[in-house]
Structures are given as structure tokens and as C-alpha cells.
Design a protein that fits this description.
By secondary structure, this protein is mostly helical. It has two domains: 96 residues, Glutaredoxin (3-Layer(aba) Sandwich), CATH 3.40.30; 124 residues, Glutathione S-transferase Yfyf (Class Pi), Chain A, domain 2, CATH 1.20.1050. The protein is 50% helix and 5% strand. It is built from eleven helices and four strands; from the N terminus they run βαβααββαααααααα. α5 packs parallel to α8 and α6 packs across α10. The chain is globular.
Length: 263
């Protein structure tokens, strides 16, 4: 059996930023290897995760295929797509989404839509990053428990000011595209990676801030009553969410700390 053309290199055990990439493959029905998830660390060693660690090692100056070192996961290895027929290794989530959008037919129907999709996916990723900062507002390398007071202030501002700004924006985008997208798509008439990115962030926020999300849902009815459930009901997504390939939320970007949620 031939190996998949695409190899995702990301941390095992969490959806994280790698989930935006997984959702593209799942939506397109394209096989991929999730290197660390498929062969996770155990008592024998890092296994597949060792490959993820190798590409981001502080000692790395690149790989044998001529690719420069990656800064951090996620990264994507595409067999045969590099120079002289070697493997191409790219990293940075939005860069990977942009690369895959065309081949997986998830980047809109023409050149203008390609950039509309990209700008909306970047906006959704901005929201993803701001969510992470609610529980790590001071230092990434410190534990949440070491910055709880600051996290409470950050989360309060995030819930009261940033969430409504993002949600109202995406509501307006859906209204703009309603005649074509029917409230199900941000751009055009078919699924794009912008839809997938936004859906994943909303889903993660429902886990991290369930009270706040229930409170906000009535303010953006097209987003919460139509867009989100319509995509969740797609057969391919239902199948994926019920599979072992979908990693549970835990200690990644989306973490549920009840004290940070709406009281």
C-alpha cells in the first residue's frame, strides 16, 4: 500500500492548530498520515513524535531534502512536491492552509475568492490565538496557575469585547454572502477552508466558554443557528467527530477553566 502523499507533523493528543489542517483533508476525503497521532509516544520512546521534534530541533539546519528547519508544529510534508522531486516541508498553519486550498478545492472558485477565503481564515486564526492568550496572558512557558489573576482579567476583556467584535464581523460576512452561500458558507456557494477554520474555533470556544457562548449566540443568529449547525450536520464531519482521529479538547488552545467563563 502506497504511503499517503501528505504527512501532518503535529503534537499528539490535542486538536490544536493541527486541527485546521486535519479538517481540510477530512472534508476533501484525502488520505493523510498524522505522524505523531498514528504512532504516539509510549514507554519505548517518542515514536512518531520524534519526527515532529526533529524538524523543530534547535540544532536543525534543515533536512536531507533541502528544506529549511521548521520553527514549530504544525508542519506538512508533501512527498514529491519539493525541489528535484524530493519532499516539500512547510510550516505555519496559514501557510499550509493556503498551500492545500487549491489542490483540495477548498479555496473558492476564482482568484478574488482565493484571497477572500484566505483573509477570513486568517481572521479566524486570530481569534484562535486570542483564545489561547486568555489562559496564558503573561508567559507561554509558565503554568496557568502562575498567572491566574492576569488570566481572569484577560478572559473578561476577551469575553466582553473581543468575542462580540469577531462574531459580529463573521455575521456580517455571512449576510454579505447569503444570496450565494445560503448562510452556510462565508465565500461563494461551496465549502472553503475559511468555513472550516471558523467552525473549528467556534467549536473550541463552546468547550472553553460554554456559558459565554450560550449568552452570545442570540446576537449572531446566522452564525450560531445556521452556519455552525449546518456544517456540523455534514455527513463527513459527523463521521470524523465520531472517530478516533478527532482528538478531544484538553490542554491545548481550548481549555475549560470555569472561573474564566461567564458567571
Amino acid at each position: 500500500m502506497a504511503e499517503p502523499q501528505y504527512e501532518l507533523l503535529y503534537h499528539p493528543g490535542i486538536p490544536g492548530r493541527g486541527e485546521f489542517i486535519r479538517l481540510m483533508f477530512e472534508a476533501a476525503g484525502v488520505k493523510y498520515a498524522d505522524v505523531a497521532r498514528d504512532n504516539p509516544p509510549d514507554e519505548s520512546g517518542p515514536n512518531g513524535y520524534g519526527l515532529v521534534q526533529a524538524i523543530t530541533s534547535p540544532e536543525s539546519t534543515g533536512d536531507d531534502d533541502g528544506n529549511p528547519p521548521a520553527f514549530a508544529p504544525p508542519a506538512l510534508r508533501i512527498h514529491g512536491a519539493g525541489k528535484n522531486g524530493k519532499a516539500l516541508l512547510i510550516h505555519q498553519t496559514p501557510n499550509i492552509l493556503l498551500y492545500l486550498g487549491g489542490p483540495l478545492k477548498l479555496a473558492g472558485s476564482d482568484e478574488p475568492e482565493k484571497y477572500y477565503v484566505n483573509q477570513l481564515a486568517l481572521t479566524a486564526l486570530d481569534l484562535n490565538n486570542e483564545t489561547h492568550d486568555t489562559h496564558h496572558p503573561v508567559a507561554v512557558m509558565k503554568y496557568y496557575e502562575e498567572q491566574k489573576d492576569e488570566a481572569l482579567k484577560k478572559a473578561t476583556d476577551f469575553r466582553e469585547n473581543r468575542l462580540p467584535k469577531f462574531f459580529s464581523y463573521f455575521e456580517r460576512v455571512l449576510k454579505h454572502n447569503k444570496s450565494t452561500g445560503k448562510g452556510k458558507h462565508l465565500v461563494g456557494e461551496s465549502l472553503t477552508y475559511a468555513d472550516l477554520a471558523l467552525w473549528q474555533v467556534i467549536d473550541g470556544l463552546k468547550f472553553a466558554f460554554p456559558n459565554e457562548m450560550r449568552h452570545r449566540s442570540s446576537e449572531s443568529p446566522l452564525l450560531f443557528d445556521h452556519f455552525y449547525p449546518s456544517l456540523k450536520d455534514e455527513p463527513w464531519l459527523k463521521k470524523y467527530l465520531d472517530s478516533k482521529r478527532r482528538q478531544p479538547y484538553s490542554m491545548g488552545v481550548f481549555r475549560h477553566y470555569p472561573e474564566l467563563d461567564l458567571q
